[in-house]
Each structure stands twice: as C-alpha cells, then as structure tokens.
Amino acid sequence: MNKGIILLVEDNPDDILLTQRALKRANILNDVVIARDGIEALQYLRCQGDFESRKDNSLPVVILLDLNMPRMGGQECLKEIRSDNALKSLPVVILTSSSEDQDIMESYNLGANSYIRKPVDFDQFVKAIQTLGLY
C-alpha cells in the first residue's frame, strides 16, 4: 500500500539527513522527496521544470518546509501553495531552527498547519517528528 510521499523542502544536507533519521526512528515510513528550495518544491508540486516528466502526479501527504533557503524561502513558498487552488489544502508543517516569534506568527498567518522548531537534541526532534503521524 502506498503511504504517500512526504515533500521535504530543505537546503541543508545535514538537516536533510537528520530529518530522514528522525522520520525513520519515529516509524514514519513514507517515501521522502527532497526539494532544495521553494522554487524546486513548487516545480515538484506542479510537475514543472525538472519534475515535468514525473509520472505520478499525486500530491504529497504533508510538506515539511524550512524557512531560510536560497532563491525562494519557506514563507514565500507557503504563500504560493495557499494561493493555488490545486495545492491550498495540502498540510504544510514549518520545520525550521527559527524560534523568532515573528516567523511563527507569520507562518500561521500564511496558513501553516504546524510549526516545529528543530531542536538541537535528537530525541526531542524525534518526538516532534512523531506528531507528523497526525497528518
């Protein structure tokens, strides 16, 4: 049975590995597709650019979205997702190291479903990732 895809939008290779390890430890066994910035994420979601030939045009079950990335950051990407009728109902979880109140408020104002701060402690991170099972 296909459990659906998780779209991880993250530019830091160490954070990608950490997130993949945390997902595995939390027994979240979905396939993970990685986009390195907001533009790549939108191309994946819309089957454009490098993803134009993607045969399975199904949407991910959840998007894990970092805030600080090159080209297009997470909040701008979230704004695009929420303004696109085909994408706007997708669950989007902000997964970032930022604990700035302004980032948290703005993310929720733009329509984020959750905001998970990447803790330094791996076990805490796994616990935070386990909440993704709700999606």
Quick overview of this protein structure:
The chain is an alpha/beta fold.
Summarize the helices and strands and which ones pair or pack.
Layout: E1 5-9, H1 13-25, E2 31-35, H2 38-45, E3 62-65, H3 74-83, E4 92-96, H4 101-109, E5 114-117, H5 122-130
Parallel strand pairs: 1-2, 1-3, 3-4, 4-5
What are the key terms here?
five-stranded parallel sheet; 17% strand; 5 strands; alpha/beta
Average pLDDT metric: 85
Strand fraction equals: 15-25%
Element order, helices and strands?
EHEHEHEHEH
The largest sheet is: 5 strands, parallel
Annotated CATH architecture = 3-Layer(aba) Sandwich
SS element count, helices = 5
Tell me, what's the shape?
globular
Structure explained in plain terms:
By secondary structure, the chain is α/β, with parallel strands linked by helices. The protein has one domain (about 5-130): 3-Layer(aba) Sandwich (Rossmann fold), CATH 3.40.50.2300. It is about 35% helix and about 15% strand. It has a five-stranded parallel β-sheet with strand order 2-1-3-4-5, with helices on both faces. Helix 4 links the parallel strand 4 (about 90-95) and strand 5 (about 115).
